[in-house]
């Protein structure tokens, strides 16, 4: 009755670390399995920055870049080993997740690797001079409003994040000539009457 068998069952009663690992591992596996079954992804369809290793690394190290205009130009998506950055109002956002939009073949590739703040206000995409942070000649209120909305867009975007800052010397020479502004069609319902 007593003897080896008893000690054996005694050992079974103890809930060991191995058991915890087994249970947690099993639950994780089941979670991934059902997620795959229902959504064809292992994360229930979530694809945002919280499962992006680059973002997690940034959060852990709390590392912010501080780039010159020339340095920022390297991050235009041409070098696959570097992230893609865009500058807005002196802030640098990591938009690598949308290589299809900001990479060399993307519809908005001309915005990457620069601080084209002026363009976010005017929408004058055809004019190469507009791809600058020089806001001289624009209506101050309009520029402030548009830029803060764009900043908000990039900051709150599920896949993008604030990566740091860009150093911007005061603009010199003639500012770009005035152009007819184009309104961004999205996010404008609350000001629809303006
Ligand atoms: C001030 C003017 C404008 C600015 C600054 C602007 C900027 C942008 C930016 C930054 C994106 C990418 C958003 C993201 O990362 O998801 C975008 C997307 C888009 N914009 Fe514009 N845009 C402007 C005007 C327009 C106009 C007038 C149209 C259409 C006639 C347009 C059509 C689109 C479309 C279709 C997308 C989606 C592109 C894609 O997902 O590949 N935009 N815009
Ligand atoms: C970025 O670096 C420049 C030059 O070293 C410095 O003057 C500036 O304060 C820095 N900006 C930020 C936001 O750290
Ligand atoms: C991106 O920047 C690099 C280095 O400045 C440049 O050689 C390349 O032509 C740029 N690519 C695009 C698509 O503008």
Account of the 3D structure:
The protein has a single domain, classed as Flavocytochrome B2, Chain A, domain 1 (Roll), CATH 3.10.120.10. Helix content is 38%, strand content 9%. A 4-stranded mixed beta sheet has the order 1-4-3-2. It starts with a helix and ends in a 28-residue tail after the last strand. It is α+β, with helices and mostly antiparallel strands. Bound molecules: protoporphyrin IX containing FE and 2-acetamido-2-deoxy-beta-D-glucopyranose (NAG) (2 copies). Protoporphyrin IX containing FE binds next to helix 6. The site of one 2-acetamido-2-deoxy-beta-D-glucopyranose has 3 residues, from loops.
Q: What topology does this entry show?
A:
Elements: H1 4-13, H2 17-39, H3 53-61, E1 65-67, H4 69-72, E2 85-88, E3 91-94, H5 99-102, H6 117-122, H7 140-156, E4 161-166
Parallel strand pairs: 1-4
Antiparallel strand pairs: 2-3, 3-4
Residues 66, 165, 167 line the site of one 2-acetamido-2-deoxy-beta-D-glucopyranose (NAG).
Structure, briefly:
Residues 184-194 have a biased composition (Basic residues). By secondary structure, the protein is α+β, with helices and mostly antiparallel strands.
Cα-based radius of gyration, to the nearest Å:
25 Å
Reading off the top of the CATH hierarchy, the class is best stated as Alpha Beta
Bound molecules: protoporphyrin IX containing FE, 2-acetamido-2-deoxy-beta-D-glucopyranose
Helix-strand makeup class: alpha+beta
- Termini separation (Å)? 89 Å
CATH architecture: Roll
Which consecutive residue ranges, at least 5 long each, have pLDDT under 50?
188-194
Count up the domains.
1
Strand count: 4
In CATH, the homologous superfamily goes by the name Cytochrome b5-like heme/steroid binding domain
Main sheet strand line-up: 1-4-3-2
Strand percent estimate: 5-15%
Shape: elongated
Assembly classification: single chain
